[in-house]
Amino acid sequence: MLTGSKIAAIDPGKLGGIAVGTVEGGVTHVHKMPPTVRTIAALICELDPELVILELVGGHRAGNSAISTATFARHNGALEGILAMAGIETLPVGPSKWIPAILGGEKIENKTERKNALKAIAKEYAPDQKVTLAVSDAICLFKWYADQKEQ
Fold first, then answer.
1. Which bin fits 87, alpha (ψ -120 to 50), beta or left (φ > 0)?
2. Is residue 122 part of a domain?
3. pLDDT, tens digit, 9 for 90 and up, residues 31-83
4. Most buried residue, 41, 60, 64, 105, by most Cβ within 10 Å?
5. pLDDT, position 49
6. What CA–CA distance (Å, rounded) separates 45 from 47?
7. Strand arrangement, sheet containing 51-55
8. Residue 21 belongs to what domain range?
9. 96 closest CA partner among 112, 107, 86, 88
10. Across residues 101-129, what is the average pLDDT?
């Protein structure tokens, strides 16, 4: 990875988001997940990142409904196809890897409490961005990657 390379971290859920920036400069802008595959593809092409950190989904997560899990997986599959067609390097990362690292090993079982804790961390990491629940996971995923590169 070249110094200053633009990267994007993506939470592929229907209510997810995208955080964009560089390891050195942090998150420079965020986007709510666009509503359709076509608008997702257009945004990815416009952003033109050299690397995408994509939250990996592979099964049902406790606390999520079956419909939510299926929607999440469809978005993830659509994103994988878009990224492959665009020739963008992709690093899939499971939530069981990045969430404990971001929370400092603390295990928060309650989904609402966990999401609010991640949102607070995202606000601290990207204070110049409008941090909402839609983009907070993407910002934290971006932070996880940046922290790995700084070690």
1. left
2. yes
3. 999 999 999 999 999 999 999 999 987 666 677 778 877 777 777 788 899 99
4. 41
5. 97
6. 6
7. 26-32, 17-22, 7-11, 51-55, 89-93
8. 7-150
9. 107
10. 95
Calculate the dihedral angle through the C-alpha atoms of 3, 82, 142, 29, rounding to the nearest 10 degrees. 90
Q: Is residue 2 situated within a structural domain?
A: no
Residue 123 located in a structural domain:
yes
- Judge whether residue 1 has pLDDT over 50: no
